[in-house]
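FIELD: query
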Amino acid sequence: MEFLKVSSKSSPSSVAGAIAGMIKDGVHVEIQSVGAGAVNQAVKAIAIARGFLSPIGIEIVCIPAFADINIDGETRTAIRFVVEPRFVRGGSAADIDERMRLDSQQFQPLFKE
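FIELD: result
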């Protein structure tokens, strides 16, 4: 799996552009950051990307997770962010119903008894 690697020196606007472009193209986005400064830049980029996408009807969600990675023979803890579209606003009532039906099917295994 490839990640957008964000450092403390990364430009949040540039990373946001990459996120927005990938989301629009339907590409799975994962961001990896190591260190407080890098995580800060990644979170800013996600917020800016939301600002790019929201006006065109695409809302995104962010799922954070920890990951142990190896850097120069040393194990470090990274923060990974999965960014994905939550829904697209607009369309007819039938379109919205269909999206909701598909979303509920996607999460069906979580609710099995």
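FIELD: remark
DSSP finds three helices and four strands in the chain.
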